[in-house]
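Repro:
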Amino acid sequence: MTFYDEWLGLWGKAEEDRRQSRRSIQPEELEWVETVQDARTALVIAPETGFRTWGMETILAELPAGHKTGAHRHGEEAIYIVEGEGFSVVNGVRYDWKEGSSLAIPFGAAHQHFNTGGSKATYVSVMSVHLEAFCGLHFTEQLEEKGTFDRLPDAEASPDGLDVTGRRIRLHIEDAPDLGGGDKNASDLPELPEFSEDNPLVVGDLKGMEKLFGVHKSGLLEFMRVGKDRNDFQVHEQEISGILIDPPYEHGGKHAHMEAHLFILDGEGYSIVGDEKVPWKKGGGLFVPGPQTPHQHVNESGVPARMLRIASGIRYFFEKAAQDEWPYLYLAPRQGSIKPAS
């Protein structure tokens, strides 16, 4: 067999890998460990947990009250605070955070997290360790081990979440714009051409998709975007884009795009990913494989479903490079109540 014969078989191998990949992980399936960095942490969506990702990992970590994580350096990281309050020291500057805050740790920046609240802090972390390692670029340098603290570090606090260059490191949730549609539906956008699942709307890329946010989700809190100056974040490797919100008993819009990770903050339901029905609930993860898998989320619970939307920087590289082959597609707007009859 020649190298070319091997190339001819790579697409089939990738398709089989995608078929074998997990689509979701439930909170009770997480395998928690203690490391020199974290008191308690678990991989959520990662190759180690059975997901065929593009080299990105979604991680969950807990920080007890009165404790600090280790201090370390590595590639770019995005963080969302699920619960708790405290601060992070990033390159010698303090950034206070609370439930709903998002942070972007620049590539190579020394950083450490401190829990100053009265209960544990939980956060979602997103990195691209496997992708960096494939490229021969990954390093993790441990500067200090985790532990308790008796005194706070002598670090000047950023008043606005920006670093000295004007780059955003931290955003509080109340400062995130909501790009969702609220009560809007498809009839509120008469300029759209007719489309259906059999005749999808080709929106091309995320920029085209942004025009449909109003009919795609009831709420869409926007944090950061790779390659875009969103809320003054400057991220490149991965993003915690924001929070997708579906009201109780509602279908979200149906679309198809490159790989995405989702972490469930609230609600319970299922998603149609390709031709699979994939259940999800609070505290778990959902995986949408690329390059163009149709999917739709259905909230079966009586509370709004809130999902962290997570994507890798390499997604946007290939979204642009392969746009003619696998464009971003929109198949159906969000739908009304599916609440069972009482």
